[in-house]
Design a protein that fits this description.
746 residues, mainly beta, 22-stranded antiparallel beta barrel, 6% helix, disordered N terminus
């Protein structure tokens, strides 16, 4: 009996001590060291804890439910130098002054190494598009962010879809992540709501040892905001030329240990034609930009058991529909030379995707933690028929109006367990394991039947970051991948950085690895008489990326240069079958104009360099320019790689000033792009597009109102060559826009 009483007493004491330990509170205010004005939107974290908050319009912050007696605050803001501030668990009425930072040296990144560190201290060079850059340019889509603010990217359209290239490689070889979790399906970057984005981190080159398959040419990691206010809500409404409209609403709430984040965005727009004639000088109503509408919703719930342990559950849904004109037609010339009219569009395109996931994170100490995540992404696209495609023999529609047929359906599962461990004050080890499963439901065989196919891969990885002294830092990692089809493969990375004064010098190597898509291995496609056959004997695509990087960072200027070479082998592309090969096929070849097959047909080498410079001549003004040179060659054919652009330059200039509760920001952006090579079409011409925008911020207690105005494509550039050319850009010319952001924080 006494033992039971003693055990009860001990448990009771533990519960009381835990409750007391979790009742710590820190309260204070952040101010500008020079102006003494409150600092809005600073992020405050606690070392050895998952707890934190964000300052409101009055600069005040409150952090509750702290364990322990002593803490270190880590305070960051995109416009100020980071601060580490030691406090006790019961600190009130703190006043902490921060010095304004003219450059971006304090920006924290995670993509290069998988661990949080200042961008200037990362052994792997990372470029960052910060939220203040997005706001200054009034940017609303990932495509605009990448093209206006980073010369490594270019986009092209086929009239059906838009594709991206990064430093000479296509979007299939670029891994897109959201908070380190990969996106799958066809609508990847279109599904990102920029109103909830804190920064965009871009890693040039391969990174398969850290991120697994697909990271052959680069990684884009979109880091979303993680607000800690009791209540935070925002609305962003934007209208622009050609009926373009977007509305997003974000609501965050923190009640006790439970946090909720909800994001919704609706977008719509009219399509437009750049030309009414074809290359044969006949009329066409085809449109490179289609009328559309889309809806995107994302919900996350997080529960903090303690300030060291948290769990989350997340889900979302995305829907995108094109609304093609039903009566659009084009003129075609038959074999006799006569001109007749054909309908252009007989169906709309409908895309849907939903995802769900859950995970946990446990802080061991301020630099060590364990996290586990499960994630599933599900994509579906279908044709929605208009009922206007009439059969010439029966006089009836070939497809009933409103009927649908499935185009593509995929499902992706990912489970990851990862640990970050500080071995000593010089070494930090990352280890983990990852399981992936891809499933394709719409595999069409040569006989016309449909079936489904799923493939898994399992990998383990380890990476160590080591700092020898204040000058030398290195990172080395390796990943072992076991793929159901392609069995075992090792890929690695190695980076070394030397710091001296204001200079950083880096040298790095990384391997890339990408397994073929299921549709290329197992599915046959018939596209208007062009038959593309599956090939189950495809090999995985690989790359070896080498780079040298140099940086100079000072208070008033930041300059960087990066030179690289990327060797790619076993690249997959179409290969036209020979007459002998066609004769062996169990099909009627006379039905098809062309018969091709996916095959490993190319070895390529991409050489290039990037230059960038940003200047901060005074407190309120900064400007900069970037240039990217890419020389991509198919080594077997000795021809340029498809869709490569050799020369791209970007420029920006920004003026910002604050008068008490009002802040003005004026921003100028320019993009100068050289010719774009195409395998199937002529070269797209060089062009230059400039945009100007203004943003006006009014702050009053818990509310912030930010109206904005601007002009896109100031000089009215338009590529109005006949349809089916390789368009340089699909802009319809000069456009005007206005938007207003309303925020509430408590």
């Amino acid at each position: 009996m006494k033992k039971k009483q003693m055990a009860t007493a001990v448990i009771g004491c533990m519960m009381v001590s835990t409750a007391v330990a979790q009742n710590g509170i820190i309260q204070g205010k952040l101010i500008d060291a020079q102006t003494k004005e409150p600092i809005v939107g600073a992020t405050i974290r606690i070392n050895e804890s998952l707890n934190g908050t964000i300052t409101g319009n009055d600069g005040i912050f409150i952090i509750k439910n702290l364990s322990g007696n002593k803490h270190t605050l880590r305070i960051t803001h995109v416009s100020y130098e980071s601060v580490h501030y030691a406090v006790s668990s019961y600190s009130k009425d703190l006043v902490i002054a921060m010095k304004e930072a003219h450059n971006n040296l304090s920006q924290v990144v995670v993509t290069g190494t998988g661990t949080h560190r200042k961008m200037v201290d990362s052994p792997v060079p990372i470029s960052v598009i910060a939220v203040k850059d997005l706001k200054a340019a009034n940017i609303t889509t990932i495509e605009d962010a990448l093209t206006r603010l980073n010369p490594s990217f270019s986009f092209s359209t086929t009239g059906i879809s838009t594709s991206m290239t990064m430093n000479g490689v296509g979007q299939d070889y670029v891994l897109i992540l959201v908070n380190g979790k990969r996106l799958t399906g066809e609508d990847t970057y279109q599904r990102i709501n920029l109103d909830n984005v804190k920064r965009i981190e871009v890693l040039n080159g391969a990174a398969s040892s850290l991120y697994g398959t697909d990271a052959v040419g680069g990684v884009i990691n979109i880091i979303t905001d993680d607000p800690k206010n009791t209540i935070q809500a925002s609305s962003n409404t934007r209208v622009s030329s050609k009926g373009r409209f977007s509305q997003s609403i974000n609501v965050d709430a923190n009640v006790g240990k439970l946090s909720s984040t909800t994001n919704y965005q609706h977008m719509t727009g009219n399509g437009w034609r750049l030309s009414d004639i074809t290359t044969d000088s006949l009329f066409t109503a085809r449109m490179p930009v289609m009328p559309f509408y889309s809806d995107n919703i994302d919900q996350q719930l997080t529960y903090h058991f303690t300030d060291k342990l948290s769990v989350y559950a997340r889900g979302g849904f995305y829907h995108h529909t094109t609304e093609r004109p039903q009566d659009a037609y084009e003129e075609v010339r038959d074999k006799k030379g006569s001109i007749k009219r054909n309908l252009v569009y007989t169906y709309d395109l409908d895309h849907q995707s939903f995802f769900y996931g859950a995970g946990m994170k446990y802080m061991i100490d301020k630099r060590s933690y364990i996290e586990a995540d499960m994630y599933s992404d599900n994509y579906r696209s279908q044709y929605v028929y208009m009922g206007n495609n009439i059969d010439s023999k029966t006089g009836l529609p070939k497809n009933e109006k409103g009927s649908t047929s499935l185009s593509k359906r995929t499902r992706y599962y990912n489970a990851t367990v990862k640990g970050i461990f500080e071995l000593n004050n010089r070494s930090r080890l990352s280890v983990g394991t990852e399981y992936e499963f891809n499933k394709l439901y719409t595999i069409k065989t040569s006989s016309g039947d449909y079936r489904k196919k799923g493939i898994y891969n399992l990998s383990v990885f380890a990476q160590n970051e080591y700092k020898w002294n204040k000058h030398w830092t290195g990172v080395a990692g390796v990943r072992y991948i076991y793929h159901e089809n392609f069995k075992s493969h090792f890929t690695g990375n190695l980076s070394l950085m030397y710091k001296v004064g204001n200079f950083n010098f880096r040298a790095s190597y990384a391997g890339g690895y990408r397994t073929p898509e299921l549709v290329k291995m197992y599915s046959t496609a018939d596209n208007n008489g062009r038959l593309v056959l599956e090939n189950p004997n495809l090999k995985a695509e690989k790359s070896n990326y080498y780079a040298l990087n140099g940086e100079y960072n000072a208070k008033w200027v930041s300059i960087s240069a990066n030179a690289y070479i990327n060797y790619l082998k076993d690249l997959i592309d179409y290969r036209r079958l020979t007459t002998e090969e066609i004769a062996t096929l169990p099909i009627d070849a006379s039905k098809y104009k062309d018969i091709q097959q996916y095959d490993n047909v190319a070895r390529s080498v991409i050489k290039g360099f990037n230059l960038s410079a940003t200047f901060y001549p005074c407190k309120d003004v900064n400007f900069g320019a970037s240039y990217a040179f890419v020389d991509g060659k198919d080594k077997d054919k000795n021809t340029p790689l498809d869709k490569t652009v050799k020369h791209v330059g970007t420029f920006f200039a920004n003026y910002s000033h604050t008068w008490k509760n009002y802040r003005l920001s004026i921003n100028l952006n320019g993009r100068m792009q050289g010719k774009r090579y195409s395998v199937r079409y002529d070269e797209a011409p060089a062009f230059s597009v400039w945009d100007i925008s203004s943003r006006h911020t009014f702050s009053c207690r818990n509310f912030t109102i930010e109206p904005g105005f601007g002009i896109e494509n100031i000089f009215n550039y338009k590529d109005n060559r006949p349809f089916n050319y390789n368009y340089a850009t699909i802009t319809h010319g000069r456009a005007f826009f206005a938007n207003v952001v309303i925020k509430f924080k408590k």
